[in-house]
Amino acid sequence: MNESFELTPTRVRELRAFAASARLLNFSQAAREVGCTPSVLSRRIASLEAAVGARLFLRTTRRVALTARGEQLLVHCDRLDAVLGELAEELQPQQGGLQGRLRIHLPRNYGIQRIAALLARFMVAHPAVRIDATYDDAYADLVASRVDLAVRAGRLVDSQLVARRVGTMRRYLCATPAYLEHAPPLRDPADLKAHRCLAFSGLRTGTLWQFTRQRQRRSVRIEPVLQTNDSKAIRDAVLAGVGIGVQGDYMGDPLITSGELVEVLPDWQLSQSPVHLVWLPGADRVPAVRTLIDFLARELGGR
């Protein structure tokens, strides 16, 4: 095939004319199959042979046969026909419910605690939808990773994305009752200097814990006995009685309710993080993406 060969609509018609002729080895029958006259079919095959730079058929008065080049081209035509058939099926208007495969990126622990069960419910309601979910705290480039929808907690920095706020994540300090029973008094953020503190390195301020109470602001630079980028590891260490740590409400609230943990300095508030669904412009025109956005916004909106 020469360098000028391009798969234009005209070329596709020529390839279909060739494929029908190659399978039937009868130009009149092939013309009826592709919906043209025998003379038009012959012109299409002649044009294709010129583009390929080789004869595709051996013609005699009694029979038609494929050349070696024609046999090779027929294999490729069969592949092309299969691909075009799959594409036509994929582009058919969806009927009877949502379909398709969605790629979703979520913060690891927040996604597992708050969203994994919601995705399962969504898939039960829409069984023809397939989901590839990545739970990872690393920043995801939606274009490079081909992500349809992402969940982000914190300040948004990519102005090219469409965003929909679906909630707020509250952070607070907590510890076990047993730790607090034997620890120094804790009435003011400055008292944290005398305590064993556990730091989540994912916080934008690092080991500088910043508090507000009404119009008052306090900042305390802690010296952590444990520092990690995994909030679950912080939770497990706090539950073990190692010291005081920061927890997001999605992970800490059930432990506060059960009495396993106690909120520390409840009058002083740590920073809160907005939670957004984000997607590339136009991605929500896909029905499955649009429906998932609305579903998650409805379920997360009150949190």
From TrEMBL:
Heme is among the record's keywords: no
- Matches recorded under PANTHER family: HTH-TYPE TRANSCRIPTIONAL ACTIVATOR TTDR-RELATED, HTH-TYPE TRANSCRIPTIONAL REGULATOR
Domain HTH lysR-type stretches:
10-67
- Which Pfam families does the entry mention? HTH_1, LysR_substrate
Known Gene3D superfamilies for this protein?
3.40.190.290, Winged helix-like DNA-binding domain superfamily/Winged helix DNA-binding domain (1.10.10.10)
The similarity comment for this entry is: Belongs to the LysR transcriptional regulatory family.
Q: Which UniProt keywords apply?
A: DNA-binding, Transcription, Transcription regulation
What InterPro entries has UniProt attached to this entry? LysR-type_TF_proteobact-type, LysR_HTH_N, LysR_subst-bd, WH-like_DNA-bd_sf, WH_DNA-bd_sf
Entry-linked PROSITE patterns: HTH_LYSR
Q: What protein does this entry describe?
A: LysR family transcriptional regulator
- Which species? Dyella lutea
